[in-house]
């Protein structure tokens, strides 16, 4: 009897590092039918099937640097790239969200690379080697953002970001983040949503710290959670971004947000990245933030933070990626 191949996830739950590169690519579609060339698909399959060995090429050079790369695939590319496995059941393009004041746009992306380590040079080297040869000819870079650790894991608004994340090895981390067998095409993988936000720092810094804390739902200096607002009152970001499971628990997601930007360019940003075993959970969070709960009482964080991008991918298991070259 042949043994079933074990399903190994990619390094989704790797710890937050000091540096991360977020690469969003589209596949070139030069012909009027809008389909990628078979040679392009082949080049991408070959590259993705060898991502593990490219990662090893980099990580061996400093084993303390916690190098990891996860690869995501968009809904439009899945059928051509992975023809023998049905798409994960919730995989669909990022749905734009329109609130009364703020909107979250949907922007293009077929492939996503979340590259992270303690060293900027390792991430650079990975990106350099990845974007070489036939793969580079098959794709176009839509966005490449460099994120970095800001003090004690703070965002550029000055708040500690990532506290409520599920903890590696803790209760539910696997269930919350890695899709189970009932998601046939998605087993062992994770939905990932990315949004690149820019902040109006001048307006944010014009607020008193207490007002900023009410908007976020935590104290700024020591990161202590504030009580939820009364039902129907203006809720904080923390409350609006919480999706309950109806049994006293929450559908937590894994966020690896990173600050990015350069004061000399007037650029101050947060790269939002959320992994979940259930795409609808992140979509529900975005509805609650942009439309508000109750509708109209939207997340005040958005008065100071504008999303420039919004894209959804599926990060398949490492086993599926490795099999693409067969
Ligand atoms: C919590 C910042 C966008 C989901 C937080 C916290 C901060 C923060 C400071 C409190 C500490 C923590 O638990 O991490 C930001 C910034 C954003 C952003 C600066 C972009 C400008 C988003 C988006 C989502 C989201 C787009 C989901 C779609 C969450 C969740 C929590 C959270 C689930 C934890 C809530 C809880 O306490 O259970 N965020 N966030 N955030 N955020 Fe965001």
UniProtKB/TrEMBL annotation:
GO terms, molecular function: heme binding; metal ion binding; peroxidase activity
Entry keywords, A to Z: Iron, Metal-binding, Oxidoreductase, Peroxidase
Residues of the Dyp-type peroxidase C-terminal domain: 153-318
Superkingdom in the source lineage: Eukaryota
Cofactor requirement: heme b
Pfam family, one: Dyp_perox_C
Oxidoreductase keyword on record: yes
Name used for this protein in its record: Dyp-type peroxidase
Organism of provenance: Cercophora scortea
